[in-house]
Amino acid sequence: MHRQHSRSTSLPPTRQTSLYRLTTLALAGSLAAIQVAPAQAQQVRRNATQVMLEEVVVTARKREEGSQSVPLSISAFGNEQIEALKVRDLQSLSVRMPNVALDDTASARGYANFSIRGLGINSSIVSIDPTVGVFVDGVYMGMSAGMVFDVFDLERIEVLRGPQGTLFGRNVTGGAVLISTAKPGESFAGEVRAAVDGGDQGGLNSYLMGTAGGPVTDTIAGKFTAYYNKDEGWFENEYTGDHFGEVEQVMYRGVGVWTPTDRTEVVLRYQHSENDSDGPAGQNHTNGSGVPGYFANFDRDSHDLSIDEEGFYNTETDFLTLELNQGVDFGNGTITNIFGWRTYDAKSLGDIDSQPVWLFHSRSWTEAEQYSNELRYTGTFGERASVTTGIYYFTNDVDYHERRQLLGIATGGAIPAVQFDGGGYYSVDTWAGFAAVDYDLTESWILNLGLRYTYEEKEARVASLVYNIAYPGEATCNLVDPAPGEARCNTDFEDSDSWNSWSPKVGLTWELSDTARLYGHWTRGYRSGGYNLRNTSPYPQDVPGPFDEETVDSYEIGYKSEFSRGRLNAAVFYNEVSDMQRELNFPGPIGVIQVVRNTADADILGLEFEGGFALTDSLLASASLGWIDAEYSKVTADLNRDGVIDGADKALDLPRAAEWTYTVGLNHELELGSWGYLSSRLSYAYRDDSAYTDDNLGYLLDQEILDAGVDFHSANGHWTVGIYGNNLLDDVKHGGDTQLPDTISGVPTGGTFAPLAKGRVYGLQVDYKFF
Q: How many domains does the chain have?
């Protein structure tokens, strides 16, 4: 039996060399800047307790204000807190917040499957909109692909829980994640960071990154950031005996700021990133029907895998934003315009059967381009009314092709015995207008009002996989990147539709004191209707769409307080979900069938607590708790596929709605006199198990994550040397649990496609800051 050798293991040599040289030169420039940076007086240091309890300035309501003053359930992390917690990517924060799961699908690196308050998706279909919107420097990311960022040189991260439709539009029914990259400071400064880590198996994972910037003239400032990651692979593939999970990633970002007057600011940002990685670390274990993988089957609670096709996932992304902030006399306000442009190109190959033989391998090609522009005004009138209003436009075009290559086992691994091709072309145009007003009724009562109108058009042309079949020697097709001799596939479905909606919000805030407030609100959010570009069903009734929009009515009461040694926040919420959109994922004749439908109405009740308390001046305790009670109130689809829609469907668990989440942590600081100081941290997080598929046959294990670290900080503030351990309990986490068929064309298959995340990791990190 021969292994398929179609895998691309790295970038083309010329590109790889140029990227490496570019990154090396950029970091070398930063190091050179260290040598010429003038020595400055040592800055006054704040201890770890002060840093972790510091109130973060956020933009959750599209104006700058303290996170504790915002009448929303929000977790915010500033630059120093991100550094103190050693946040490497968004997943690092997932276990630190109640009722939040910022997970990667693991079927494709960086593909977000975020869930907040029980509202999430289980999909890597590029045309499926998320329930949790991601916004980078004020720009909405139109696809879930490429969202689990490796974070470096950020100003802050904000996670907003609950629908945010009034100010942020559709597709934020669960919440929103706001990421703000850092701008150059008022004086020249920078940082160089190197890190290396690894686990009990596999190879080493190394990082090198740097940033430098400051004023160039009296009115112009600039900053450059570069990031390089080389991972030899955390896993071991039992089929080859080699390391698996290799990654090579390059990112560089330039920021320019022009302030011609005290009231005018123009910010230009450009970021380019490339990723070349292995395919998914798919594990095959006994599925929910009790059928094990036929050729290989592993313990679900292990990191073991054996795959004959290691695959690849190669991406290239360009992202540009242009922001204008202009102060005006009218309402002593600010006019802001944010233009965004992003392209995303990806090619992938994955072993979906997760077996040491070729049963079901899948390729994909994706090309996407989006533009957006938001023009808004924020001001205050009569010292009572704070007003934010604006207009918004967004467009996104996606070309997608998927190829399923089945039963190479029958040809000795040379070529697939049968191939299915499909995908489609997809376009979105969105227009919106919005307004929000906070009006001081009295010195302690504030009325919160908001309204957004959205009109959206979507168009899709789909080629169903079951209509594009090729056997050895027959012609194949490709919708995105035809190879020599290939034609473009014919589309069998074409349609367009439009939706419009009003997203209101009504609330009250009661300022109990200068340090405590109580708030309550009702708000409505929508998740876009649309089309399924991955039409894999052989059944005529399973057309690609359109499916209708999902509606969430959310009722929330919250409390926020700060006191001399800490803070405490709490919220209770109740969500009514109508026309819930789901990707129904179940075994089928060509591997897996994925049908998108409005399946049900649901009610979700929940509680959240977050707090921090300084036990001493050098010891901080933090904790959070989240609880969800999610159930269907009405079911309109046969979720368990028993032929009837009845109480058995209604009794199923909602996917990705873990009942309990909680964290406890300690941060400590030890003075070392003239040497500097030691900071140490320890955190434990727990998340309940949850259903993955709507029929509940696929499920995700509970999570117990223990992280720890110790950092030495030099007295002059320049050097930081730290050791850390993540997931010290070696907990197993799957990005999904897709159920595979018992057989494919008579060949035994069974088990699951369950991509693994890394287990236990130990590391060393060195930072040098210059200022």
A: 1
